[in-house]
Design goal:
The complex is a heterodimer of chains A (about 425) and B (about 250). Chain A has 18 helices and 3 strands. Chain A has about 425 residues and is mostly helical. With about 250 residues, chain B is of the alpha/beta class. Chain B is built from 10 helices and 10 strands. In chain B, helix 3 packs across helix 4 and helix 3 runs parallel beside helix 6. The chains are: A mainly alpha (about 425), B alpha/beta (about 250).
């Protein structure tokens, strides 16, 4: 081999090696970004799955409860006055505190502490007249102090937890009366203005209902449109025009669909505002083109030989399509649908426009109840000033990501399990 | 006796003419082979006989094709009924990705031929027996048809075609994707089937045409150059072009 040829060969090998390195660097960068992003979210969010409780003692004193009956009924317990009992349970933590300063102690638990005192007695009626230990939800400030997210060294006047409260917290912590447990209420409670009480139940159900409504509207329409366009429609300028427009529709910014939902669904059809029904229909406008494109692609992927086989057996166009082409295209269509829904799942802007950004502190039971959705919840919480919401935002993102990963996994499984292999 | 009579058939794909004035008489219960080099129009002609050209939008067929005095090239013709009577076997085996049983039962199901499950079982069994596949698959009728070997798949397609008892079967190079043993099996099958059905076969293999057919038509550049008894075409053709093609001088 002469030296010219040798050089050429060497150059070719080097070029290939360089190219492979570019690829590796690109993948490395992408993975690094992903890792940083994940670390950011997990390190901030994992603490939201822990809930802080303050343990104290409550004396269910019949006199303070204003119960007269010897053996009170459930109704008596229900209607009793818990204010004093609950108040005493908290102030007993520091008996020496002057009465006008008592707010400092009360502020260390959530404003719902009275209800918690009541609920414990309703669950255990035999506690009446006894002194029993009780867990009260710590306020978000104490919660953040306990989780170490709250700097203690800034000047007192800039702190939401004052020196006295920190002192009480340290005392309780030493006694082991500050508990940290898995935060069930994060998943079972609706939104709240108080970070320690806020949960994702409302927005999670809102998301589930929206996705179901979206599926119910977009899937049948999109599949029918795709089948007609792919299998029946004549190929002419008009159908080309439709095809171009469907592709354009897929690229329309989602906020435009939100305006459409606002202008048509709410203003013209007067559908109930802030509900998953309207949210789902608006989102279905977005998923529609995605599903149509996926369905058409998978219809196209069915080999023409199958259509010929069916036609040659004397099947009509309709029979060929319904018996053979459509069933064979279903895996691709379904996985495209799931991916379209996963996109819709993360959509925020159109939902804000149709009012799903409202503060909802009830859990929706049907698609026509007001609800938030997970991405909107993230948006709402990220706007809140309290420190307690910072971790909630990350935790909510984690739930949303888990939801997305599950859906994409489902799409993969559908594709691999049911897709027919053409030899 | 003539089963199909084509007169002055012209076929156009858009502005391109693919067949020129083809006239041919296909006899009943015989095997008619259509030979010729690639692109000569033999498959196009075959697809006129069960109107499969309808699928191709730019395709236009002129002229008259009569089967038992029924005009096939007419808008009024019910293609579903026609294809029930004229079955087709394609170049590449194309069983449905369904079970062997479902493959064979599909035609009888959509045409409402079987009244009961027993009747359907009977049709499936006879069709598979006629296609010489029954012994190989009788214990695995619920397996997927696409899992069979190439030759078995093609015989399954033949079984599927004869399940509706057609009067004519069109075969478009049925053995071109098969090995010699599978080819021999299909050829034997064709020999058996011609007792009951009229067969038109397009083939690239001249030896195959010579082996299985009674009549042969030679196509070249969209024209039917010569048509006659197979013996005569292969031993003593009238036309020089036919002679050249048969002896392998072109094509």
């Amino acid at each position: 081999m002469n030296s010219f040829k040798k050089n050429l060969l060497k150059k070719r090998y080097n070029a290939e090696r360089r190219f492979q390195w570019y690829g590796k660097i690109a993948i490395g960068l992408a993975l690094t970004f992903l890792a940083v992003f994940m670390f950011q979210i997990f390190s901030k969010g994992y603490s939201a799955f822990q809930k802080t409780w303050i343990v104290t003692e409550v004396h269910y004193d019949k006199e303070l409860l204003l119960i007269d009956a010897e053996s009170p009924s459930k109704d008596d317990l229900e209607n009793a006055d818990y204010y004093d009992v609950a108040y005493k349970a908290m102030t007993s933590l520091d008996p020496g505190l002057p009465e006008e300063e008592d707010r400092q102690l009360i502020q260390m638990v959530s404003y719902k502490y009275e209800t918690e005192v009541k609920d414990l007695l309703l669950k255990n009626p035999d506690y009446l007249g006894k002194i029993v230990p009780i867990k009260l939800t710590a306020s978000d400030d104490v919660d953040q102090v306990h989780k170490g997210n709250y700097p203690r060294d800034i000047p007192e006047k800039n702190r939401r937890v004052n020196d006295y409260q920190l002192q009480i917290y340290d005392m309780l912590n030493e006694r082991g009366d500050i508990l940290s447990e898995f935060n069930i209420s994060f998943f079972t409670s609706p939104d709240s203005r108080e970070a320690e009480l806020a949960g994702i139940a409302s927005s999670f159900m809102g998301t589930v209902f929206s996705i179901l409504v979206c599926l119910a509207f977009s899937f049948p329409i999109a599949v029918l449109a795709a089948i007609y366009l792919e299998e029946f429609a004549p190929k002419n300028k008009f159908t080309d025009f439709i095809e171009v427009n469907i592709n354009n529709l897929a690229a329309v910014p989602s906020i435009v669909f939100g305006l459409l939902g606002l202008g048509v669904l709410l203003a013209v059809f007067n559908l109930p505002r802030s509900t998953p029904l309207v949210g789902g229909i608006t989102l279905s406008l977005m998923t529609l083109p995605t599903i149509i494109i996926a369905a058409r692609a998978s219809l196209k992927a069915v080999p023409p030989s199958i259509r010929e086989a069916a036609l040659a057996m004397g099947a009509s166009n309709m029979q060929t399509t319904m018996h053979h082409t459509v069933p064979l295209s279903m895996p691709g269509t379904l996985s495209g649908t799931i991916i379209g829904l996963a996109q819709a799942l993360g959509e925020t802007a159109p939902l804000i426009l149709i009012g799903m950004v409202a503060f909802v502190n009830t859990i929706p039971g049907t698609p026509v109840d007001p609800a938030a959705s997970l991405p909107v919840q993230i948006y709402i919480w990220s706007e809140s000033a309290e420190r307690g919401f910072v971790e909630k935002v990350s935790a909510c993102i984690m739930v949303l990501l888990a939801f997305l990963i599950l859906m994409n996994l489902a799409a993969q499984i559908v594709r691999h399990k049911f897709e027919k292999k053409w030899s | 006796m003539s089963k199909i009579k084509a007169e002055n058939v012209n076929v156009y794909y858009g502005s391109k003419q693919a067949l020129f004035d083809v006239s041919i008489d296909i006899a009943e219960k015989e095997v008619t082979a259509l030979i010729g080099p690639s692109g000569c129009g033999k498959s196009t002609f075959l697809r006129c006989l069960n109107r499969m050209n309808d699928v191709i939008e730019i395709c236009r067929v002129e002229g008259s094709i009569k089967m038992d005095n029924l005009e096939l090239n007419s808008r009024k013709l019910d293609v579903v009924r026609l294809r029930e009577n004229v079955g087709m076997v394609f170049q590449k085996p194309n069983p449905f990705p369904k079970t062997i049983y479902e493959n064979v039962a599909y035609g009888p199901t959509i045409h409402g031929i079987a009244q009961s499950k027993e009747e359907m079982d009977q049709i499936v069994e006879t069709s598979l027996k006629k296609a010489a596949l029954w012994n190989e698959v009788k214990d695995r009728l619920d397996e997927i048809g696409t899992g069979l070997s190439g030759g078995q798949q093609q015989r399954l397609c033949i079984a599927r075609a004869i399940s509706v008892s057609p009067e004519v079967i069109l075969m478009d190079e049925p053995c071109s994707a098969l090995d010699p043993i599978a080819t021999a099996q299909i050829e034997e099958l064709i020999d058996d089937l011609k007792k009951e059905v009229t067969i038109v076969i397009v083939t690239h293999s001249m030896s195959q045409a010579a082996r299985v057919s009674q009549k042969t038509g030679f196509f070249h550049l969209g024209k039917l150059i010569e048509f006659g008894p197979t013996d005569k075409i292969f031993k003593n053709p009238d036309n020089q072009q036919t002679q050249d093609y048969i002896t392998g001088r072109f094509g």
